[in-house]
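Teaching assistant's notes for section 4

Start the section by putting this record on the projector. Ask students to predict, before seeing the second block, whether ABC transporter ATP-binding protein will look compact or extended. Collect guesses on the board.
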Amino acid sequence: MLSLRNLVKVYPGPVAALRGVDLDVPRGMFGLLGPNGAGKSTLMKILAGLLEPTSGEVTLDGTDIVRNPEALRPYLGYLPQEFGFYPYLTGEAMLLYLLELKGVTAPQGLKKLTAELLERVNLTFAAKRKVKEYSGGMRQRLGIAQALAGNPKLIIVDEPTAGLDPEERLRFYRLLAEVAHERTVLLSTHIVEDVAMLCPRFAVIRQGRVVAITSPTEAKAAIQGTIFEGTATAAELSELQRTRRVTQAVLFEGRNRVRIHAPNAAVPPGFERVTPTLEDAYLLLMKDPQVPSENAEPAREVAR
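Reveal the predicted structure now:
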């Protein structure tokens, strides 16, 4: 179990990136969902031992990894948001170099382990190709291969599907799901679909605080019967955005297709009740006036 207690990070300025994060991350896949600038990458860097918190405690299976970061490294796999591969090395040479840097050992040698990891992430066919020729999804799979080396107990992946095309994203989903069967995987993302596809439970982070801990099913159930959809002109949309809680507004056949949250069921003419999505739930949490930006408030655990 990975446990965070009252984790705070203040940068010079001062800028408070984390404002007292409390979180328990169990075995399996767990999501951390929030917009850019919410504090996700700061949190990931602290957990990976790359950044010291201003205050607070982080423990992995009872070991304090803030005071003793060296205790974490043998058990950690980390895929940062941007991984600095050498473009002119082959995938095989790049992975072998990374394993050597990490100090990984293998009974049958690192070359055999490299081949096994490339096979596991479905990159054997591209082992002799230069990394500069890899697609975005292939580079992410190479990053996961190095994160898996050493059989870590904890794997941290930061925005792993940003920039991937739909096909590559689905491949990466399958790979992460397989990996999570054996260990704790913490997935940090601003993409709601990532969480919906992969995470049995997740936390929502906003302005450096965890504001909800829930599951996709629970989050949608909490707003069941309160989401309505209809069309609106530009002027009507402007009025809806001023007077209603709009969760989505997209152009469809030249008209604005609008989704609103109306818990009292008083809706504009032409709007009909629809099934809520996880994106509806997430956007409502981002707009929730009950979650202040400056005053501390504990995360809300959605009832199971």
